[in-house]
Amino acid sequence: MTGAGPVCGAAIGLHPDIDVLAFTGSGGVGRRLLEYSAQSNLKRVYLELGGKSPNIIFADANNLERVAKETAASIFRNSGQVCVAASRVIVQNSIKGELIEKVLHYSAQYKMGDPLSLDNNVGAIANRAQLKVVEEKVAQAKAEGATLLTGDDAILSESGGYYHAPTIFSDVTPDMKLPHKKSSDLF
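Request: output the structure for the sequence above.
Response:
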């Protein structure tokens, strides 16, 4: 869908000649599309709603190096701006330290900048408002006692884009707000 959501989404969702919708995004918009379907022609609606997609890693993982490399990629690919970004990692305590060390190693290799340059592999965050959300989540996680392992800063502001360094927290507990909302990445 392109254009302003309330205009385009409503037009598509309510149009009687559209039989099926597929949407990836927020729960609020998903609910709205279901309402539009009910108000129009009861079109089928397929939803993939955002959340914290976890990677769950046990001590019997047979290739921790590959697990770490894929974990970093799943978090930071597309600047973490996909619903399936595995931005929550649940790991068995016996391998936690080793896995964190390896993920930090792979995360440090990501080069941020213009996504059209072959020298870079992570582009900008969508807009200033989303960058602000990331900055607020990082500040909140630190205030709640999560341990910042890397990141913490908006970067490349001189480029005119909205970039935030790959950010990883450990010691995140279920009572913290970080694991429940879209934000930076964590262990």
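Strands lie at 20-25, 44-49, 54-57, 88-91, 147-150, 154-155, 163-164, 168-170, 185-186.
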